[in-house]
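Action item from last meeting closed. Structure (578 res):
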């Protein structure tokens, strides 16, 4: 097979490198990622030669597991190089080959071809690389099947490489699990990581969202449709069998041995995991089942016959993965058998935790409740914070008030304003702009709410943590923040205050409007200004408000000076005429 590929693979070689790139094993090995059975082509072609593929014509089987690639012979799992070194560097390339495996013996497999038509595959048992290697074709005076050290086999070879590959071989009737393979400083891992997501996404499903049959496969449904029942209770979904509660998906996973490590269930009563699978070129079907206790031990049952196993057979998940070959998981769920009853609070699979309990918002926190918060007075504030129009406002609502993942509308509710009613007298401190406020009623919502946006509650806890932009034209006054969900609300504990100084409608920051009212102190009247009671304002009051000069003050001072000067002149005249 390799000889036939020589010319085709030569065309795939992208570049020829010198000794520098292949002159020895790299000091630090670079991870090349995890390769799964779905990444390994089942047959060898010129197009896939430089990718991982099965090179043996009498192919064995292989499957990905959390321990590594489970391989039964006869199998050659190899990958061709796209950048070809000089012939002299094949020795260092082969010497860099390392295998980590368990089970039956695994062989190194280094294949190469030369431009003069020579080709071979060199093999040595893992752990015996320093000894003899076997050549699959006549090489350097040795016959087909001859054995010698690498140096002897490769000494004095001439010409250019037409292809080069590295990998491993498991012989007929052997079984091994390969964790990793390294060559030329690059390590490829074949061990699937277990799924242990500490914070999966959370959704909630009620009995009314589970379809009664499999007319439509995708989504939650009863795959048995055998007359069982299910109902939502405070404890979860109470199921009386026979019922198969399944969430159908197009392709949940191509690695069933890894997929089942992410399953979890909170339940009381007799319940089984269910994992439906398509496998093979004809998309044959089976369902793998296990109780939680069986799954913890890696033991599963197949509902239908699969290669090597009759219907109802029990085996380790790795063995089922090997029997299924290329496959895809098409959903997940649980089974409650005939005559059994179970209550399922939650089911976790594929990075999602599905809750079957109804959501009950917390109401034990101050400011939290069920219904519309705008219809309920906010609790007394625990503190008061100054905010600035156009700035940002940190948002924070505790866990448990809102359902995970739901949209929460946040708004400002005006509870007090800095403007006094026109029918009341204003105290000296109020008129001077000291920030005294008028309460607008116990319910607090005396004006339309100011929306700050919608924010998504945390997918696990339901807490809200975000920032909102404050309107640039936010008026002076006192505010409270209201978080409103679909069925619950939360009043933030702090009161928020916008002072007159920061109100964009009052002019320069830190100054009062020249037309604002101030305290009465008596003195000459200022034309056109009135006190709250309708009396004329004294000019000194305006001076006190603005901090600037009154236009009457220079005239008053000049008039006083003239009167004083006239009095002095008259006094002198009176004295001289006496």
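Sequence:
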């Amino acid at each position: 097979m390799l000889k036939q590929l020589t010319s085709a693979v030569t065309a795939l070689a992208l570049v020829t490198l010198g000794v520098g790139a292949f002159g020895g094993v790299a000091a630090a090995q670079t991870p090349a990622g995890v390769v799964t059975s779905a990444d390994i082509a089942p047959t060898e072609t010129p197009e896939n030669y430089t990718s991982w593929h099965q090179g043996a014509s009498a192919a064995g089987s292989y499957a990905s597991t959390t321990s590594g690639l489970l391989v039964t012979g006869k199998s050659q799992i190899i990958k061709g190089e796209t950048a070809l070194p000089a012939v002299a560097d094949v020795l260092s390339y082969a010497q860099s080959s390392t295998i980590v495996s368990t089970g039956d013996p695994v062989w190194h497999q280094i294949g190469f071809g030369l431009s003069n038509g020579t080709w071979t595959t060199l093999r040595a048992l893992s752990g015996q690389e320093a000894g003899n290697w076997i050549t699959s074709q006549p090489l350097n005076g040795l016959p087909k099947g001859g054995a010698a050290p690498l140096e002897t086999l490769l000494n004095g070879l001439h010409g250019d490489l037409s292809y080069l590959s590295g990998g491993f071989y498991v012989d007929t009737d052997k079984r091994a699990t390969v964790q990793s393979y390294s060559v030329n400083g690059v390590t490829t891992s074949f061990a699937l990581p277990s799924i242990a997501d500490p914070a999966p996404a959370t959704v909630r499903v009620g009995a009314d969202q589970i379809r009664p049959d499999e007319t439509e496969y995708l989504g939650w449904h009863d795959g048995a449709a055998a007359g069982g029942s299910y109902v939502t209770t405070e404890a979860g979904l109470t199921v009386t069998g026979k019922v198969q509660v399944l969430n159908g998906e197009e392709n949940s996973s191509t690695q069933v041995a890894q997929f089942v490590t992410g399953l979890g269930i909170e339940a009381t009563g007799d319940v089984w995991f269910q994992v439906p699978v398509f496998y093979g070129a004809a998309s044959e079907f089976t369902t793998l089942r296990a109780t939680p206790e069986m799954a913890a031990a890696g033991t599963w049952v197949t509902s239908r016959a699969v290669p090597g196993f009759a219907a109802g057979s029990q085996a380790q998940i790795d063995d089922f993965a090997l029997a299924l070959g290329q496959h895809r998981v098409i959903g997940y769920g649980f089974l409650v058998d005939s005559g059994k009853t179970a209550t399922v609070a939650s089911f976790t699979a594929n990075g999602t935790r599905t809750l079957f309990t109804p959501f009950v918002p917390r109401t034990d926190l101050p400011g939290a409740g069920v219904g519309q918060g705008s219809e309920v007075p906010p609790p007394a504030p625990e503190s008061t914070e100054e905010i600035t129009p156009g700035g940002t406002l940190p948002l924070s609502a505790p866990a448990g008030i809102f359902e995970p993942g739901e949209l929460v509308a946040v708004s400002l509710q005006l509870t007090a304003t800095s403007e006094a009613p026109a029918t009341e007298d204003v105290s000296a401190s109020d008129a001077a702009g000291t920030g005294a406020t008028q309460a607008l009623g116990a319910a607090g919502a005396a004006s339309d709410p100011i929306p700050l946006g919608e924010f998504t509650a945390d997918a696990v806890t339901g807490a809200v943590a975000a920032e909102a932009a404050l309107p640039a034209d936010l008026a002076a006054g006192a505010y409270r923040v209201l978080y409103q969900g679909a069925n619950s609300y939360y009043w933030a504990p702090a009161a928020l205050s916008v002072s007159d100084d920061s109100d964009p409608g009052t002019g320069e920051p830190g100054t009062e409007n020249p037309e604002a009212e101030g305290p009465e102190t008596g003195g000459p009247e200022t034309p056109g200004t009135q006190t709250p009671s309708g009396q004329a304002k004294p000019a000194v009051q305006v001076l006190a408000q603005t901090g600037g000069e009154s236009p009457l003050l220079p005239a008053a001072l000049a008039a006083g000076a003239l009167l004083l000067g006239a009095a002095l002149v008259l006094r002198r005249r009176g004295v001289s005429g006496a």
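Note appended to the action item: The mean pLDDT is 82.
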